[in-house]
Every structure is written in structure tokens, then in C-alpha cells.
Amino acid sequence: MDLTVGPNQFFWSAETWAAFYTDLAQSLVDRVVVGELVCSKRLPFYQDRIPETISRLVEAGKEVALTSLALVTLKRERKLTADLAAMGVMVEINDLTALAHLPENCAFAVGPLVNVYNEGTLKWLAAQGARRICLPPELPIASVKALTQVASDLGVAVEVWGHGRLPLAISGRCYHARLHGRSKDNCQFACEDDPDGLDVLTGDGKPFMAMNGVQTLSDSYACTDHQIDLLRQAGVSALRLSPQSDGFLKLCKLYRQRLDGDLPRGDLERSLRTADPNVRLSDGFLTGSHGAEWSGESGARSAAS
Amino acid sequence: MVMEIVCPAGTPAALRAAVKAGAHTVYCGFNDETNARNFPGLNFDRAEMRAGIAFAHDHGAKVLVAINTFPRAGSEAIWKRAVADAEICGADAVILADLGLLDYAARSHPGLRRHLSVQAAAANADIINFYAETFGVKRVVLPRVLSVPEIAGINSETEVETEVFVFGGLCVMAEGRCSLSSYATGLSPNMNGVCSPASHVEYQNDQGALNARLGGYLIHHVERNEPAPYPTLCKGCFSAGEKTGHLFEDPVSLNAERLIPQLQKAGVTALKIEGRQRSKSYVAQVVRYFRAAVDALDAGQPMPEGMLARLSEGQAMTTGAYKKTWR
User: Fold this and answer.
1) pLDDT higher for B230 or A109?
2) Which helix (H) or strand (E) holds A184?
3) Looking at residue B326, what is its pLDDT?
4) Is residue A236 part of a domain?
5) Is residue A35 part of a domain?
6) Which residues in chain B (167-186) have CB-CB distances under 8 A to chain A?
7) Does A158 reside within a domain?
8) Of A49, A109, B224, B229, which sees the most CB atoms within 10 A?
């Protein structure tokens, strides 16, 4: 199995953003999706660094794709979306609007925010030119199996959400702005203070979700340490690791070792817990009763507890 | 043209009540996971659907069949059969969200009119026109993330009819793109046709106050004598940073009655009322009011004074994203 690094979901300074990808060029991942997924207002801060970053990653031997926004509503967002194909790398559509703008017979990738729940949708997307599909994180393993089977017949690579806070919802309202009593247009970039999202707790103090501008994420970090063998058997060809501000290169290395058989099941989890004893993990969407569930050994400290 | 009132019906009795109360159009679903209001005791079996559609047609009303969840891999036949049966039952259109199912319906049931469900979250003219060109979609139900000027903008760039929600439950997230519910409970709108399902709700007495939990997560804590809203995930009380409150949305429901004239100017064809889980008397009252409102608007008369507040069960009401306050 390969490793794909998904688009950064958070708002980082241009320097942090560029440094992250400079480091990533030297890592063991196979594929990198760059670009802005969550909020078009963030893009001007680092947009001019994207071409150089793409070149650096390509030179380092990475496959590179460029994501669309997850929710396209405004005129300038439609324009941005229409311009994606001109950047010279494969486009990953995360809102179908991007598909509407792709030239005919143009190969593309499908991100986890497009609803690919069944064979009919997968076949239709493949007929339009989809070559790679990262399935929605919500899908159970039975669906993953059924879809990889169809995909392999069509020459479409299937990717699954491997690690990172799960993208659970996208909205027209900015929750960071709302938290600060501001509107979206006058957000003053409140999300910048939370490079991994802002923890959202229940009334009795239980971590539950994370806000990230217009996006809502899981509190827990999805982790596939205990699912990798199952996913491999199912024919999944890549895991998607979602950028986080701290320890990401080490995370990539752990997953590479785990995939190569150099790290037994459970050791990846143990390494994560050594680095951060309070880390909250989940893998319930794949095999559990609900998304927040964790099948690892340290169930007592799971996100669902 | 009078704006079309599109009303929910969770039962055959609600369908008849809505039609008698003046609904131009009723939408409903089969009693299985193919529709996004898959609640116990709700929805129509095939015979009820056929009879309901016949009743509506006899009274000059239309019926739309919502088949708007995303078919489960390995089980697409259930959803395809629902489309086929909707046509056999005489439906005026089906409301679909899934690409694969739209493709199937366009190819196998070309004579059956196709509407794009809000669950497809088509939020701009480019994608709406793409759905029209690719699958022959004639109407789109717009996601509840758009303002009235944005809706007007869409209508200026598309021939596809637009339908917007004006009353009832309010999703604050883009519909069809939210898995908060399955994260907490394992059941989601996209896969199971339910959000924050009652099967996972627990109420606990907390020293006289009431705790409402969903999947074990505390969503509301209300003191005695305070109204206790249903624990819908995105309308819960949470904390982040220094703040505690309804961080995503207050426990409000949508009421855009005052915006009807603006929505008409924005080129909207149909006004949709949420609530297939509602009683027939509720449906009838809301329909009667909205029908009177669009008739008055069409006749150039003043809109009837708001009488809907008492139907919102003590909940506060909002105009959602329509007024540009979100932006």
C-alpha cells in the first residue's frame, strides 16, 4: 500500500505551510495533495507558494494533486475552481463543481468529501475519468470491500482515510467567526490560532469535535493501525494521512514501517501514545458501532470512553 | 405564477391532510432506508404510495417521491427498485441525491422527472447546470447555506427550477455532507436516512435538571421548567476555548415566511416545508398558512400576519443563511 498525504485542512501561516511541504518532499510518502480544501479566504496568504511547492514535490519524486474547495458557492470560488486544471497537475475534486469545470477526457482524482457510497457512483465517476478515489471516511469495511472490487476492474485506485482528525461536516457558516462574535466576511482569521482545530467539548467536559472555520472535525484522530491488514485484504491501495502541525513526518515514517511489516500491529498506537499520552484515537467507522469507537488495546482511553 | 408549496407527508393521512389544506405538491418516501426520513412508523408502502398519489392527482396536486439517501454498496437494487416503483405508482418526480442513482434513473426511467435533493448540496450554478446537462435534472432543492442574493444569482444563471426550504428543521451543515451523527451513533442521514436518531437518545434526571445525551455525549442540560429541545447534534450546547454555548447553531427552527416576496423576486419556483415526521394537523396548519401567503402575494395583497410561532413547539426561529447574517 502507498501513502498519500491529504490536503492540509487547517490555516497555517505561509511560512509554516511552505516549510511543511519542504520537509515532506524528503519523506517516504508517495503522493501529496496540496491546495485549499476548507476556506477560500485562506488561499491568498499562501497561493503564490503553491507552484514552487508543487515543483519541489515533483522533483522529489512525489505524485502531486491539487484539491478543489470542499464547498463552492461564491463567484470567485467558482473561478478558482475553474482554474484548477490549468495548474498542470491532477485535480482532486472535493466538490463536484470541480468536475463540471474539468476539460473532457481529463483524468482526475476524487477526494473523501465527494459521496462515493456505491458501485454505481464509482462506475459513473470512473467513466468520467476518475483514476483514484479516496472513499468517504464514514464507510464501513463491507462497503470498502465491495467498492475496491469494482474499482480494480476499472483501473481505479482506492484510498481510505488512514490517519488524522476526520472531516465530519462543512457549512456555510464559520464557527470560528461565530465563536468570536463575528460574521464570516469579517472573521479576522480566527481559525489561524488553532493549527489543528479547536477542541469542542460536551457540557460535562468530554472531548467530542473540533472546529476549523467552516469545517467540523472529529475530536479523535482516526488511526488505522489495527485495520491495515483488513484494508490490504480488501484491496485498498493507499492510506491517506491528514496533515497535523506536530510530528507529522514521524507519523509518515511510522505508517511506512507499519505498511512494510517493520512495525507489528499495535506498535504504531504505542508509539503515538508514547509521544502523546493523552492522544485520542478512533477507527469505529470501519469496523465499530460508530465512528468515535476505538478498537485498540488502550480502549479505556479511547475517544468513545 | 403562484409560488408552489411543497409539503411533507410522513403518512397517507398527512398526505391527504396536506392536499386538502391546499398543498400544490406533496413529497414523501417509501418505508425503508431509501429516504432521508427513515423513522419508525413513518412513510409509505407501495400500495399506500399508489393510493396517495391517486388521491393527490384527483385533487389536482402532485407527488414527489424522495429517494435521497446514498445507496449502500452491494445493495443498490433496493434503491433502483424504489425509483422503478415510484414511476409505477405514478409519481410526478423523484428526488435523488446519489450520482449513480441519478445516472440509473436518467438511463432506465427517462420519462420520470428528476429533482436534485438537498442531500446533493448543489450550491452554485455551475454544478446545477452540470446536473441538468448530465442527468436531465429539472429542479434543484437548494442547500440551506445560501443567502437570498446568492439564490438570485443562481437563478440568473440556470434554467433549472429552484426549490428552497422555508419552514421547519434547519441543517446548519451542508446537507448530504455531514457525518456527525454516525460519528456519535453509527447512523447517518447519508447511509441510514436518520440524524441524531431517537434510538440513541437518553434522558437523565440530574438533580431536577434534565440531561439529554446522544450516543453517550451530553448534548443539552436544561434546568427544571426550561424547554428541553431534542438533542440534535449540531444544536447542542458545547464549549470551545473560553466559551460555552450553542457553538454551531441554537436550538432553532427555520422560518422564512417574511422572505417569501424576496425569494419570489430571486426567481425561486417552489417553497419547501420540512417535517415528514410531523403530525397531519401540524402539516395542515403550516400548509394552509403558506398557501394563503403565496396566494396573497400573487394577488398583490398583504401577507397574512405570522401565525407560525406556536407551531414551532416553543423553539426560537431563524431565517438561517437566507439573510446575510452568516456572511
Assistant:
1) A109
2) none
3) 66
4) yes
5) yes
6) 172-174, 176-180, 182-186
7) yes
8) A109
- Kindly list the domain boundaries of chain B, sorted by start residue: 4-170+252-326, 180-245
Residue listed under C-alpha cell 469507537: A293
- Tens-digit pLDDT profile for residues B70-98: 999 999 999 999 999 999 999 999 999 99
What is the mean predicted confidence (pLDDT) over A295-305? Answer: 57
**Cβ contact (<8 Å) for B179 and A136?**
yes
Distance CA A132, CA A151 (A): 9
Q: What is the pLDDT of residue A300?
A: 42
The correct CATH number of B4-170+252-326 out of 3.20.20.70, 3.40.50.620, 3.40.190.10, 2.40.100.10 is 3.20.20.70
pLDDT at B307: 62
- For position B251, what pLDDT does the model report? 84
Distance CA B202, CA B234 (A): 17
Q: Is the pLDDT of residue A31 over 80?
A: yes
H/E stretch holding B201: strand B201-206
Q: With contact defined as beta carbons under 8 Å apart, do B8 and B14 qualify? A: yes
At residue A269, the pLDDT reads 97
- Using a CB-CB cut-off of 8 Å, the residues of chain B touching A119 are 73-74, 76, 100
β-strands B252-255, B270-273: how paired? unpaired
Q: What are phi and psi of B178, to 5 degrees?
A: -130, 120
Query: Touching check for B153 and chain A: CB below 8 Å?
Result: yes
| A138 contact residues in B (CB cutoff 8 A) | 179, 182, 188, 190-191
Which residues of chain B fall below pLDDT 70?
306-315, 324-326
Asked if A211's CB is within 8 angstroms of B127's CB, the reply is: no
Please check whether residue A181 lies inside any domain of the structure.
no
- The x, y and z cell numbers of residue A153, run together, are 476492474
Chain B residue nearest residue A122, CA to CA: B100
- E strand or H helix that includes residue B77: helix B76-88
End-to-end CA distance of chain B: 31
Length of chain B: 327
Q: Chain A 221-280, CB below 8 Å of chain B: which residues?
A: none
Say what the ipTM of the complex is. Answer: 0.96
- Closest chain B C-alpha to A192 CA, distance in angstroms: 14
Q: Do A202 and B236 touch (CB under 8 A)?
A: yes
Q: Which domain holds residue A114?
A: 2-164+219-277
Q: Strand (E) positions, A68-184?
A: 90-93, 108-110, 130-134, 157-170
Backbone φ and ψ of A97, nearest 5°: -55, -35
Q: Verify whether the Cβ–Cβ distance B326 to A183 is below 8 Å.
A: yes
CA-to-CA distance for A126 and A133, rounded, in angstroms? 9
The per-residue pLDDT for B311 is: 64
The size of chain A, in residues, is 305
Q: Does B196 touch chain A (CB under 8 A)?
A: no
Number of domains in chain A: 1
> Is B18's Cβ below 8 Å from some Cβ in A?
no
CA neighbor of A170 nearest in space, from B118, B127, B175, B251 = B175
